[in-house]
Amino acid sequence: MTRPVPPALRFVFGIGSWLLTVAITLVGLAALTFLIGRVVPIDPVLRIVGEKAPQSVYDRVFLELGLNKPLYQQFWEYLAALLRGDFGTSFSTTRPVLTDLLDFFPATLELSSLGLVLGIVFGVPMGVASAYWHEKWPDHLIRVIGLIGYSVPIFWLGLVGLFVFYFKLGWVSGPGQVDVFFQGVVPHVTGSILIDSSLAGEWEIFWNAVSHMTLPALLLGYYSLAYISRMTRSVMLDQLSREYVLTARLKGASELQVVVGHALRNAAIPLVTVVALSYGGLLEGSVLIETIFSWPGIGNYIYSSLFAADMNAVLGGTLLVGCAFVFLNMLSDVLYRTLDPRSR
Asked: Which domain of life is it from (predicted)?
């Protein structure tokens, strides 16, 4: 008869397995970004020395970058540099890529977080209502709204939104984080313009920033709403068909208690994963919105670096977004196991 594994040892094994999974995933992500940098038809040496540089200068820089070494050795050196926090130097800004990422990422985090909040606040109730009135007109209306959010390209919605609400109606401010004459006024503390302007007591800049981020945040919120409402509807349909819902109704519970107190409460556990994936999707898909609205975030940084053939910056930004996505997936898994003991 086998002896049961002690809980402490089982916990250590679980943590070790989780850390090993994270490490393998991050190494795979680093390998993927490294290969992308080698496959893209951009010559980093020409980007540094210029097309008119003599061959001797080209050869010297080629050797300094280590491009003459075998591919596996280049990857090992790339991985070792990443572990030291060295993402290389950006040719566009002439600063370390890690410094640029720390400057630009908070703006993306701020905009994506607002979009996620809007997606949760409106998407979850819409999904619940769609499931409750299944195959009735509210269900069809909500599904059409979600379908538009899924089908219409977000860059097209951004351009139309700018034309209608900024150019024609003047309800919101245009591209940028703040107006030009407000740039550089607020000290850079957290990287979030709303938090930094609040800490500095610059409330005029705060409301100017709110006006600038209203339209891009609403578009990201709509994109998130489409996914969250659809998944909430699917989970709620499953919960509303369970026997405990019928039992609660037979006991005389009100519809509000049945839907919110019982079905939505049980549906909240799988929705944790849905919200985490939606957040990762916003961080990953903010490139187009940030480019259209000239938002100084990581997406706009990657876009401008790509057109400038600055591969160190492109790979660093891609790796950062990938790491954020992996972290959110792992966090959702931990929360799921914490909230639902059956999944442990």
From this structure: Bacteria
